[in-house]
Amino acid sequence: MNSHLLLEPVIIEMKRFEAELLEQRLPVLRGLGIECERFGGRSFVIRSVPAAEGSEQLAAHLQELAEIAAEDSTDWQDHLLIGLACRSALRRGRELGAGEQRTLLKALTSAAAPAVCPHGSPILLHYSRTFLIDKFDW
Fold first, then answer.
1. Does the pLDDT of residue 90 top 80, yes or no?
2. Are 30 and 76 in contact (CB under 8 A)?
3. Could you tell me which residues come within 8 angstroms of residue 76 by beta carbon, excluding any fewer than 6 positions away?
4. For the residues 58-65, what does the mean pLDDT come to?
5. Which end of the chain has the least Cβ crowding within 10 Å, N or C?
6. DSSP label at 120?
7. Does the CA dihedral 111-47-57-100 come out positive or negative?
């Protein structure tokens, strides 16, 4: 997976047992586009994140994502992928240009479950013609 180099590397501090687990999982993180390495003691430096729309938003959540990656569970990768998807998602209120809107709708048509986000919240709603007429007095 392609990576997006951060303008400023992010240094995170982990608990000792988390640091040991995270270090074991660094190759998997690299495969996901997260360049992370030990920075002495319980610290790690993150230099890049997956190159995708919204990757600049991930920098604010790197500590939380590292903690997910250091979970002592068998499904930590699923939790991490869901976390990456959620934290890099478009946020309400962000304006999109016409090209971005087309790209988003095209990607949505090929999604496995286009009506819900990774957490199961609805992202598509159906409003009947009757509902619209009633609400907007057409």
1. no
2. no
3. 25, 68, 69, 70
4. 73
5. C
6. S
7. negative
Residue for token pair 């949505």:
108
Residues 6+ apart with CB under 8 A from 37: 26, 44, 45, 47
Task: Give, for 123, the enclosing helix (H) or strand (E).
Answer: none
Confidence grade of residue 44 (pLDDT, cut at 50, 70, 90)? very high
Q: Is residue 92 part of a domain?
A: no
Integer Cα distance of 76 and 5 in angstroms = 24
Let me know whether 81 and 105 are in one domain. no
pLDDT bucket at 53, cuts 50 / 70 / 90: low
Structural domains of the chain, count? 2
> Which tokens hold the place of 38?
């030990």
Burial status of residue 99 (CB atoms within 10 A of its CB: 0-12, 13-18, 19 or more) = exposed
